[in-house]
Amino acid sequence: MAGPTPSKRPVELPALTRVSDRISFLYLERCTVHRDQNALTVTDKDSVVHVPAASIGTLLFGPGTRVTHQAMSLLADCGATAVWVGEKGVRYYAHGRSLARSSRLLEAQARLVSNRQSRVAVARLMYEMRFPGEDLEGTTMQQLRGREGARVKRVYREQSEKWKVNWERRDYRPDDFNASDDINQALTAAHTCLYGIVHTVIVSLGCSPGLGFVHSGHDKSFVYDIADLYKAEISIPLAFEVTASMPADIASSVRQAVRDAVFESRLLTRCSVDIQKLLLPDFEVEENDLSQDVVSIWDYQQGMLASGSNYSEVGETS
User: So where does Mn(2+) get bound (predicted)?
Assistant: First the structure.
């Protein structure tokens, strides 16, 4: 029986590309993903391609994809999100290790979502980001949801008229991609890409995808919160535009369109900044600060204490 494969040396944190500067996502199918030093190798029946892992935000593993332990180890070290997607890319399964070593943003998120007043304040700020220039002071959550619903309906109607694509309503089945009409298939594919990109930024910053402010009760509640900030600008218009061109493969064409739009709009940078503004609005947070590998010990009387020290001389409590 062969012995264990020696582990490659981990990528040093300072050498990693910041999440805001990364390529958005790369979709792969019917291939084998392995590792060559600090690069991924993607092998299919025709060729082998090297991919710099530290510059990738998300890898979408489609049907027929095999990935080795060494490749996953590299993705984890690089803080990239690995996503296994079903046929046509409609399911999200897993993510890699966070780029952040500090829990600063995560603690702020947990604190804000655990208090009713601060949770409402963050939720209202999210709506304000979608309605720039409008006075939302004093509006209830119900009123904000109503405004958002009307805004999204208006976007659907405008895009339908612009691209001459028939639109009735959002109608899709998560378990059967092909059961929907073309525009709903395009919307599903576009939103799935957007969710993957947002999920990448969230976990790379060390935040929890499950602690949402508007959405709740799901392991991707915060992903849906943040993605909703950009749907009317990116995924919805692109879905109608691609559908109007009548491509042979809607899902593939939509993924390419979203990839290009995300790159051109520098969405990863914007998303990173938006999350930090929502969770720590009074502080300037640098991603270098989040990567500092510092562990402290909490004490409810003395605050944070340095770890790695023996406190037995101070006295013990039972």
Answer: 148, 215, 228
**Do 41 and 72 reside in the same domain of the chain?**
yes
Residue with tokens 């218009």: 237
50 is in an annotated binding site: no
Q: Count structural domains, the chain.
A: 2
- Cα 221 to Cα 61, 111, 198, 224, 279, distances in angstroms: 22, 16, 11, 5, 15
Residue 125 and residue 80 in one domain: no
Whether residue 39 sits in one domain with residue 76: yes
* Residue 1 within a domain: no
Tell whether 107 is in a known binding site.
no
Question: Do 67 and 202 sit in the same domain of this protein?
Answer: no
318 residues of the chain, pLDDT tens digit each: 444 444 455 444 434 445 555 555 677 889 999 999 888 999 999 999 998 887 776 777 888 999 999 998 888 777 677 777 665 444 566 655 666 667 889 999 999 999 999 999 999 999 999 988 888 888 888 998 999 999 999 999 999 999 999 999 998 877 778 888 999 999 999 998 899 888 878 887 889 999 999 999 999 999 999 999 999 999 999 999 999 999 999 998 998 899 889 888 888 888 988 999 999 987 665 544 554 555 667 676 776 666 666 667 655 544
What's the domain range around 25?
19-101+292-296
Residue 274 and residue 226 in contact, taking contact as beta carbons nearer than 8 Å: yes
- The answer to the question of whether 215 is labelled as a binding residue is yes
108 and 83 within one domain: no
